[in-house]
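Appendix B.2, paired examples.
Example (i):
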Amino acid sequence: MDQSVYDGPDLPEEITGKELDRSVLDQLAGLPEKLAARVARHLAAAGALVDEDPETAYRHALAARARAARVAVVREAVGETAYAAGHFAEALAELKAAKRMNAATDYLPVMADCERALGRPERALALAANPSVEKLSQSLRIEMTIVEAGARLDLGETAGALRTLERAPLRSVTREDWLVRLRYAYAHTLAAAGRPDEALEWFHRTVGIDGNEITDAADRISELEAAGAGADD
C-alpha cells in the first residue's frame, strides 16, 4: 500500500475523534485502542471537510480504511466522501461493501445516483425499484425519486420523469432541503420538456423555500426570463 494513503493528510490538532456519534465510536470499539483513536480522528476529519474540501475528506477516509477495512462505518465514510469528490465508481464499490457488512439500505439513493453518473441509468432505475426504498425515511425516498426522474431523463423518457416527480409531495408546506431539491428537479424537468412557463413557476417556488441557497434556482429564473419565458404574448 502507498504509504501516503496509509498516513493520510495531516490531522488538525483540534480533531480528537470524540466528535463522532456514539454509534460510530461503538463500531470502532473492537479495534486496539490506539488504532481506534487514529481511525476515529480520520473519520472525524473527513466529516468536517466533506462539504468544503471533499477530496481531502476522501483521503482521510482512505487512511481510515487502510487501518480498518472490515468496519462498515469506515467503508461507508469512504463511499460518501468518494461520492462528494466525484469518484463515482469508488463510491459505488465502497457503499456496496458497507451494505454487505451491515445490510443497511440508506445508501440506495446514492448508489443509484452513482450508477447514473457512470452512464448506467437502467441500473439506477433497478435500484429505485428495490422494495427496500419504501422503508427509507421521507428525505431519502425523495432523493431516490429525484434520482429516478433523472435516470428517466437520461433515457429520453421526459414524460416518465415528470410523472415520477408528480407522484411526490411537491406542494408540501415544509421548508426541508428535500422539498427544495424536489421542486428544483421538477422545474428542471419541465424546462427539459419544453414547458418554460411552468418551469419558471416552479423555479420561483423553489427559491421561495431555498433560504440556504442549495440550488441555483435564482440563476435558472434569470436564464428563463432572459429567454422570454413568462413574457406576455
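Example (ii):
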Amino acid sequence: MGRLLSLVVNMEEKNCSMTPFLPAAELKKSYDIFGHFYTVAVSPDEVASCRSVLEIIDKRQTPGDVNIICDRQPDAVFIMMNPGSSQPLVEVDNHIVADEISKLPISLVPTKPDTTQYQVMRVMRYCGWRHVRVLNLSDLRSPKSPVFIKTFERLEATCGYDAHSIFAPARQNELTKKLPKNRETPLVFAWGLSDKLSPLIARCLNAIPPQQNYTGLLAEGTADKYRHPLPTLQRDKETWFRNMIQLCEPA
C-alpha cells in the first residue's frame, strides 16, 4: 500500500487553531458542484438510485463544458461512505441494467450541496485546492446510514451485485480514470467508523494502486476506520475540520 499520512484522533481533544470555520453561504460563492447520477436495474423488481462521482471546483476554474472536468486531474480525492441525500438540480435520465454498468458514460449535472460537502470546501479553501473529486465506497444514494448498509448487504447477498461500488472488479477501468494519475495527489479517507463497512473498505483498499499517497483522520484503536467529515455535534464538525487542515498543512 502507498505512503500513509494519518492522524489518530480522539474527538474529545480540542485543536486551538484560529482558522475560521466558514459558513455555507460564503462557501457557495466560491465553488461549483457537479455529480453523475444514474439509476440501475439490479433485478426486474428493483431499481437503485445512485451517484458515481462528485466534482467540487473553484468557480473560476469551471469550464463551459462541465464534462471536461472528468478529464482533469484533481488536487485531492476524498473517499467517503455513500452519496447520502445528494440530489441533482436538473432532471436526469440515466438508466442502465446491472450487467452494463461499466458502459455508462459520465454526464455531470449541477448538484445541490449538502453539509458534508461544505466541510470538504472548508478544507479546500485552507489548502488552496481548486478541484476536489469525491468518490464513495458505494454509489447507493440513501440519507440514513443504517438503511444504506442494509441495502448494500442485501443487494450483494441476494442479487450478487457488488458493482454499486466503483471499487468492484467490473468497474476497474472507470476507477482508473477517476483516481489521480499523480501518485503524490492525496486520497483522503473519510468513510466513517461502522464495522458494517469493513467489506467495502477492504474492497476499496485492495483496488487502490500501490504507492498512492493517502491520508485521513484514523480513529483511535482502529486500523482502517477514518472519521467522517460530518459527526453529529457542531463542535465535533469543527474539530474534524481543524484536525484535517492540520493533517493537510500546505507545504
